[in-house]
Amino acid sequence: MLCGSAAHADATLDRIKERGKVTIGVLINGGPFGSIDPATQQLVGWNPELAQALAKGLGVQADLVQVQTATRVQFLQAGKVDLLIASMELNPDRAESLGYAPTPFYRVGGAAAVRKDSGITRWEDLRGKPVCVSQGSSYAKPLANEYGAQVHGYKSASDSLLALKGGNCVAAVHDSTLIHPLLNQNPEWSQYGTPIKGQILPADSVVWTRKGESDTIAAVDKVVRSWHRSGWLIDTERRLNITPPNPLLPELQTRLKTAS
């Protein structure tokens, strides 16, 4: 529940309390992390469920707004949403311009989709070979510099994955939250797998706020910490059939239960 007097809350927290509603931008990019139920047209999946639970934890109603990757930050900075749960991982550039709840709710890195008969089993096996990514991908630099891959950037993840299927590259590297559900749940991808262990550039997923909203951040972080302590995030991941299980969740549950 929201706490503290309005006189000491930042403007966003004041507004949330006055309206009895928090507006949360969520990314819906298909699969268990966010999609649209064809029967009800409601937003469902990991991101929408976290947004609903966050509003409940704050003691207000949720108003979910679908955002796009290219516009999600502008929606937050322009005040079209109060918070973001939008598959947007923490990095120094984002932390410079936005605020965030310090306790992460997930951790995401890059996973490589490759043909099962490719013989590729390690990141080092990509050396000298064409690898597809999205233009501007943060995975491009380590793939090229650390593993010697020939990185090819495509306009979107869909274009990159089509290029993989077309034989233009030996691997497509994208967020694990995209690659794993795609390969696990779609028969047309049955010839592809993720044999490379570990993720490239793993980073924490956090709830984003505008810069300097310390009271909002504190209220949100309190809710996120309660998710870990209760095991709700682990249960939700299991119920939504998100695999493989994220090792960050039991790690933080143990740490925060011990700290409480």
TrEMBL record:
Protein family (similarity comment) = Belongs to the bacterial solute-binding protein 3 family.
Keyword Repressor annotated: no
| Cellular component GO terms held in the UniProt record | extracellular region; outer membrane-bounded periplasmic space
Domain Solute-binding protein family 3/N-terminal stretches: 21-235
Q: What is this protein called?
A: Transporter substrate-binding domain-containing protein
- What domain of life? Bacteria
Q: Which Pfam families match?
A: SBP_bac_3
Stretch forming the signal peptide = none
For whether the record's keyword set contains Nucleotide-binding, the answer is no
* Keywords of the record: Signal, Transport
Q: Provide one Gene Ontology biological process annotation.
A: amino acid transport
